[in-house]
Specification:
Largest sheet: 7 strands, parallel
Helix content: 25-40%
CATH class: Alpha Beta
Distance between the termini: 15 Å
Number of domains: 1
Number of helices: 8
CATH topology: Rossmann fold
Structural class: alpha/beta
């Protein structure tokens, strides 16, 4: 796992945007795995700016989102359909028919989860998967104790995750308790993963993910086994790393062609 430590959230977003730029330049018909939450908002602003400057073209790309709340229609302001439309899709030229998110109103959740997996495979698999990191080490909505080989499925949120997401629903009592999420095994099949984490509240999770044991208690730790995973974090999120100085030294001494 490559660890890149940036000065602040803005630098993290700019750095992450370069991975998307490189991917789309190399393969215009790339399949992108996308994430929601507060962490990727800055990245999406950078991608929009690159598109508006005619430095990025999404017209041949496709996207698959990690997750969606169960029971929320796409038009609900708290849904991830609405989040993606507001923060990215309405501002770029990614074709509507190529935008894929789990259906939170599905009448047959198990069948829908199988179909979502099949759609990813039919698209050729995910080329670049964006991930945020939960404060308890979850990726997607794969909470601690999730199977490290899991596939897209329904999950019950932990009280901690419900509390973390209460800000988007006007209180914990309004947060749905169930979601559809890509599984850890699904995520691990992406050809490249870029993980973002910001702030001191993520420091313990970052340290567990990078330097701790591989365990279902910290689902993100399985990314230590991914052949091409990059973690981009700010100084606050890096504060609990034992080898932070080493990660900085490694990046500073890379060949120029390897740097973002």
């Amino acid at each position: 796992m490559e660890v890149i430590i940036r000065s602040d959230a803005g630098a993290v977003s700019k750095g992450a945007a370069q991975y998307f730029k490189q991917q789309l330049e190399a393969k215009p018909a790339s399949v992108l795995g996308l994430a929601t939450g507060s962490t990727p908002v800055g990245l999406y602003r950078e991608l929009i700016a690159l598109y508006q400057a005619r430095l990025l073209d999404f017209s041949r790309a496709a996207s698959f989102n990690l997750d969606e709340y169960l029971g929320l229609p796409a038009a609900h302001p708290g849904s991830y359909h609405s989040f993606m439309k507001e923060n990215l899709f309405s501002h770029i030229n990614l074709p509507l028919e190529n935008q894929h998110l789990p259906d939170g109103t599905s009448s047959d959740v198990p069948a829908h989860c199988i179909s979502y997996e099949e759609s990813i495979k039919s698209a050729g698999g995910i080329d670049l998967q964006l991930l945020g990191l939960g404060s308890d080490g979850h990726i997607g909505f794969n909470e601690p104790s999730s199977s490290l080989s899991s596939r897209t499925r329904i999950k019950t949120l932990t009280p901690r995750t419900i509390s973390d997401n209460a800000q988007y629903f006007g209180g914990e009592e309004n947060v749905p308790h169930h979601v559809i999420t890509m599984g850890v095994g699904t995520i691990m099949e992406a050809r490249q993963c870029v993980v973002l984490a910001l702030g001191a509240k993520k420091a313990a999770a970052v340290a567990a993910m990078v330097e701790g044991p591989i365990t279902a208690s910290c689902p993100a730790s399985i990314l230590q086994m991914h052949p091409r995973c990059t973690l981009i974090i700010d100084e606050a999120a890096a504060s609990a790393l034992l080898r932070g100085d080493y990660y900085r030294w490694v990046y500073d001494n890379k060949p120029l062609w390897q740097k973002i």
